[in-house]
Amino acid sequence: ITLSHALNNIDIFLVDINLSGVNLDGIYTALELKREKTSRIIMLTSMSEEDIIQKAFMAGASDYILKKDVHRIPEIIRSNYNKESSPVEAVLKEFRRLKSEEQLKDLTNAEREVFEYIKKGYSRKKIKLETHKSDNTLKTHFKNIFKKLSVSNTKDLIKKVKTGGLK
């Protein structure tokens, strides 16, 4: 991540899922890289568990390669470098949207309305003006939203929803 700050115009990152041990820190590295760059990310791993693959794509990976297929790395890099968009990317975009939506499933309609304003970057004061809700009602909505999504502030709330539950 530090090196990526020093370099410009990186087209593709090849990131191992386990950078230090067996804690999936490569997925969180990919998430951070994707947040800061428009580069494509290819995940490299020996892990083929479905939930790990899903987490990698939620973090922003554009491709996933198993180490046993290491001979295909040049082909996959070229493929990712040359493509504008693909049907797979369209499916990934929808998958990411659905995983983000899944985070909001327990919110009431009123809480969902407040969340939409939070997502737009509105302050509590501006949300109050837009929704005509009292301070106490808004305070209750914020408290319920934070509790239901297990976060403590709006920054963490947006991050959790945007990443489909990854933190």
Secondary-structure map:
Blueprint: H1 2-6, E1 12-16, H2 25-36, E2 40-45, H3 50-58, E3 63-66, H4 73-82, H5 87-102, H6 109-119, H7 124-131, H8 135-148, H9 154-162
Parallel strand pairs: 1-2, 2-3
Helix pairs in contact: 6-8
Structure description:
The protein is mostly helical. The chain has two domains: 2-102, Rossmann fold (3-Layer(aba) Sandwich), CATH 3.40.50.2300; 109-162, Orthogonal Bundle (Arc Repressor Mutant, subunit A), CATH 1.10.10. The protein is built from nine helices and three strands. It has helices at 2-6, 25-36, 50-58, 73-82, 87-102, 109-119, 124-131, 135-148, 154-162; strands at 12-16, 40-45, 63-66. It has a three-stranded parallel sheet, with helices on both faces. α2 links the parallel β1 (12-16) and β2 (40-45). The longest helix is centred in the middle third of the chain and has 16 residues, at 87-102. The chain is elongated, with a radius of gyration of 19 Å. The two termini are 16 Å apart.
CATH architecture of the largest domain: 3-Layer(aba) Sandwich
Cα Rg? 19 Å
Largest sheet composition: 3 strands, parallel
**Total count of helical runs of at least 4 residues:** 9
Strand order of the largest sheet: 1-2-3
CATH topology of the largest domain: Rossmann fold
Mean pLDDT: 88
First-residue to last-residue Cα separation: 16 Å
State the shape.
elongated
Annotation, overall tally of beta strands: 3
Number of domains: 2
Element-by-element helix/strand order:
HEHEHEHHHHHH
- Indicate the low-confidence ranges by residue numbers: none
Assign the CATH superfamily of the largest domain: Response regulator
Q: According to CATH, what is the class of the largest domain?
A: Alpha Beta
* Beta-strand share of residues: 5-15%
Helix content: 55-70%
Q: SS-based structural class?
A: mainly alpha
